[in-house]
Amino acid sequence: MLPDRKMYALLNRPQNKSGFKPLPVVIIGNGPSGICLSYLLSGYIPYFKRDSLHPHPILQRKLEEAPDVSILDQDLEYLSEGLEGRSHSPVALLFDTLQRPDTDFGGTAESVLTWWHEADRVVPHLVLGRNAPGGAWHSIEGSMITLSRGEWMGLPDLPFKDWLKQKRRCLRNNRATAEDIAQYYQHYVMKKGLQKNFRCGTVVTSVRKVSVESISNHAQKDLQENSDSLWNFNEKSTEVFQVDGFFKTVKGDKEPFSICAENVVLATGTYDSPTWLGVKGENLSYVHHQLSALEEAVKNNIIGIMSDPVLIVGAGLTAADAILFAHHCNIPVIHVFRRRVSDPGLIFNQLPKMMYPEYHKVHQMMKEQSAACSGPYECYVSLPEHHVLSFGKDKKCIFQDKNGYQKAYKISMALVLTGSNPNLSFLPNNGIDLAMDSDQPVSPKRNPIDVDPFTYECTQEKGLYALGPLAGDNFVRFVQGGALAVASSLLKKANKNPP
Q1: Contacts by 326-330, CB closer than 8 A, 24 or more apart
Q2: What angle do CA 445, 101, 444 make, to 5 degrees?
Q3: Which residue has the higher pLDDT, 344 or 483?
Q4: 116: how many CB neighbours lie within 10 A of its CB?
Q5: What is each CA distance from 175 to 70, 264, 277, 289, in whole angstroms?
Q6: Are 38 and 198 a contacting pair, CB within 8 Å?
Q7: Is the CB of residue 465 less than 8 Å from the CB of residue 486?
Q8: pTM for the complete prediction?
């Protein structure tokens, strides 16, 4: 990563009007989506490996039709037609099955892709992120076990299990810890030589379309140092994106920056803004919205075995992680959630018991230890089909059940873990105009950004792309297909596709 002073010069280099040249691509977010796209834009091109045999016979036949043409240059819609799997995105399914051909059936077949570095196809770009490469994985408690199988967390051409073997470690129940994943992503960026494209410690505050004329007197050169880029700026373009923000220096200062880019890729994920219940007292100091608050309270001996119960609100995996953590520390828990325990939409009812024993245990506790009947688990009370009405200053919390009956409990702290939403405050109108339903906020599961399924370009704003959860792809194994689609689209724009 570049030192602060050098980075400031790169981001704010003035240029006269005649030499104005915006950066081709800025990627906002340095998690798995941003890393994967950076790899593809750095000239790493996937081809079908000769003599490979894919278990899907129709796809195999299609791949054999043009073995000398890279996957990026083929018709992604044609290749992905007819594929089925655990994602709604055809390109996500395509790239996943090319890398892990029979993984959904428990197989271990090798990737049918081979990777070539083609220097003439590099697209200059910057990846802006708040943390080290890996994004939100650095904010998750390191010992937490991933929901997905470990091999599904890997990025192209560097299998996660191979990296883990080098550390002389193995997967537990085929799954990995958040700390391993975060380290792997950092290692990936260094191993693949991508670090020159990454600017960590940056916060984007504004992305907007501006006319070339209005900014060309204050614009910057190509931000890649010593770049002999083959990307030609489209002289006919009358508008570019202006990306403003600041980066945090080693001393803790905030240095502003401004970048002009032809294309912007949104890859910020959804970890930024925890969902609030919107009830009275939720802003009191003992009410928190992240699991890390409980970990800190235990670490600092604020919460312990003799404390009043900790309230955990929510019925997702983060709430389950909080329950497991509290149970391990013998801390009493009151668990409140809106759904029935038997609701098929509950995530626990969708997970195989053998692969996820700890979550199965939480589900058992939810079923067997309700307030109405005591069960075998000490220090835990389950309140299904309840919701929080208010939090009091005296740390009394009032709940209401499905019949309208109310209950009050004295608690030590509350954790509201009901999901999170992306923070798109840097976009006009918080990005709502880009969503499938432009009357509602962007939500990964309910209202993702509306993108073309084979380019991931926003339907409402050309030159703007969305990746990962913002586009409805919520698992690492599937966000990579979006990166493939974006890279293919950008290379076509740049005329960097072979004839």
Answers
A1: 326/294, 326/379, 327/377, 327/379, 327/380, 329/298, 329/304, 329/305, 330/305, 330/379
A2: 10
A3: 483
A4: 11
A5: 32, 33, 32, 26
A6: yes
A7: yes
A8: 0.81
| DSSP secondary structure code for residue 499 in this structure | -
Per-residue DSSP letter, 232: P
Distance CA 382, CA 368 (A): 8
Summarised one tens digit per residue, pLDDT across range 427-467 is: 999 999 999 999 998 988 889 999 999 999 999 999 999 99
Judged by DSSP in three states, 77 sits in helix
The DSSP letter of residue 155 is: B
- Model pLDDT, residue 221: 37
Q: Which residue has the tokens 């208010």?
A: 390
Burial class (CB in 10 A: 0-12, 13-18, 19+), 15: middle
pLDDT score of 449: 96
Q: What is the DSSP string of 392-452?
A: -TTSEEEEEETTS-EEEEE-SEEEE-S-EE---TTSGGGGGGGBSSTTS--BTTTB-B-B-
Q: What is the rounded CA–CA span in Å between residue 377 and residue 466?
A: 44
Q: What average pLDDT does the structure give for the chain?
A: 84
Note whether 190 and 158 are within 8 A (CB): no
Write the single-letter amino acid at 479.
Answer: V
Q: What is the average pLDDT across 397-407?
A: 95
Tokens of 10: 């790169």
